[in-house]
Amino acid sequence: LLLLVPFQELRQKVHFLVNKELNIFENLLTQDSPESLEEEVKVEEDQSAVRKQLLKVTLQVLRDMNQTDLANTLQISKIKSTLRGKVEKINDGISGHGNSTLVNEIYTELSITVGRSGEVNNEHEIRQIEALTRKTQINCNNIFSPLLGQDKSIRTVLTKGVAGIGKTVSVQKFILEWCEGEANQDVLFMFLLPFRELNFMMKEELSLVGLLRRFFKETSELKPQDFYQHKVLFIFDGLDECRHPLDFKNNKSLSDITQPAPVDVLLTNLIKGNLLPSALLWITSRPAACGQIPAECVDQVTEIQGFSDHQKEEYFRKRISNQTLATRTITHMKSSRSLYIMCRMPVFCCISATVLERFDERVESEEIPKTLTQMFIQFLILQTKQSSHMYFGRGFIEAQDIEECVLKLGKLAFQQMQKGNLIFYEEDLRECGIDIREGSAYSGLCKQILKVEFGPGMVCSFVHLSVQEFLAALFAYLSFVSDNINELQEQDGSENGHLDLFLQEIVEYIKEKIRENLSLQKTASLFHCLDELNEHSLLEEVQMYLSSGNSHCLSNSNLSSDQWTALVFVLLSSEDELDLFDLSRYDASDECLLKLLPVVKASKKAELCDCNLSEISCSALASVLSSKSSSLRELDLSDNNLQDSGVKLLCAGLANPQCKLERLR
């Protein structure tokens, strides 16, 4: 009798709990509405163990009832629910502390192209953005579909793109549309395995089944044969962040998905096709890390090229609700070439929108940031103010702490750049004296500048590589000033003039390097440095010659070597000039052609007719035709005295397998 009342109450509560959970399972089986899935994700900690056991019982009962299809559907729904919780929001750490945005609200379609290889590109990623060319466009949901004329099925796709170009958000959107039943419904199981989280398992030995259970507890009821009988897709995001050796040559071969092995061995065998050869793989990476995957293991390479000009405008109009302000922002970004180039990257668009929406029409145009440096300074000021507003009132932060925190973030950025790291862990923060725990003096600003994720452990990164580079440069600059301020003041004799002298020396050094006729890539970088320093004298001199609009505007101009270099930079910066290069606009001579050869190489069409060219130019043009990176498709050489020897040189270039010329006159 003493137990009767407690057990009656217990039966009622268990009955209520079971009914509640079964109703959720029923919703998962009968609809894929966001509301039901969102409700399912938000499980109180004390109920999660109950739900796990009840799910196990429910699946077993369904299978005992010969309702295998229903059991599988429920299993998939649980995996989709977990994935949806991971990918449906973007927490950029930029627009506001703790703010997150639904992917479907902010997502703007990105330009994705199909490439031929995952070859390593060691250029700085900003230069790679400038050099992006349009190739075969492809929709993200169709990356596993063979192109027209392709017979071979595609198992492994490698998607490359510079930092911040939208690789991870593309992955999120891809998964979200699968979860919502909009795309790729032939895939039964989809597993997201970010390399930054796999890094926490460096010393562990797990089977592939065990690894999946670590990331997706819902797979605990799946049997090994389920992975073979159904279509499975693995998504490995962020190859460039991988700290596993990925020793494809020496790792042992493994084909049993239940056999434990180091995670590195699991990865290499999965990519090589020894493990689950029927599974699909999608790997994302920055270009510099693509070489870690053997070419024979990749069936298709795609490249995310970021926003086109139209997509940039679309993003700003979505991001900034005040359309008048959005229009002003777009106009301002177009006025600065360096800013507009960077806007190919969604993250930089977000940074710019966050900064510029604080500037209304009452602000003088001179105060609005026009260079990358100015933009990042304003971004840092904004984040500092936001963290101050949040934490001053609670007594957690002082003005001196902010300055100290910026320096420590700069040190972290500098040290990690020296190591080549974009991601770092708690021990790296401690090494720089940074504590981001709630309530610490640094937690506010750090959480504005850093993206912090908690998986198996804490992993951090700056909101974008360019922010890391800016803070690293700021740290190096402040360290230099601290070490040399007395010497500089003695030279200048003025307490406030040492920076002028410092900047003047930098400008003169950069100009001297430009005169050395370095490679085009290095020269372009130096001109961007001058632009950041607001030093435009060289470019203005060249623009003066070009502004006349007359043909042969450079005849008898006697340009210096650095002015010729500046002219090449200006022309390469012009999209119109890269569509059609007309030598007669400048000077109809061999000398002018040789000086402007990089522009010819980057142009789609070159008009060189009646330009007094000789066999000297033919040798140079042959090298352009033979170049793998040449964009030239049409060439007009009519009415020039090239001689037989010059024509032979041209023929050698035309015969080169790398030649892409389609029309020659």
From TrEMBL:
GO molecular function (one): ATP binding
Q: Does the keyword Oxidoreductase apply?
A: no
Against InterPro entries, the record matches this protein to:
Leu-rich_rpt, LRR_dom_sf, NACHT-assoc, NACHT_NTPase, NLR, NOD1/2_WH, P-loop_NTPase
* Keyword ATP-binding belongs to the record: yes
From which domain of life does this come?
A: Eukaryota
| Ranges where the NACHT domain occurs | 155-289
**Key words of the record:** ATP-binding, Leucine-rich repeat, Nucleotide-binding, Repeat
Q: What is this protein called?
A: NACHT domain-containing protein
Source organism phylogeny: Eukaryota, Metazoa, Chordata, Craniata, Vertebrata
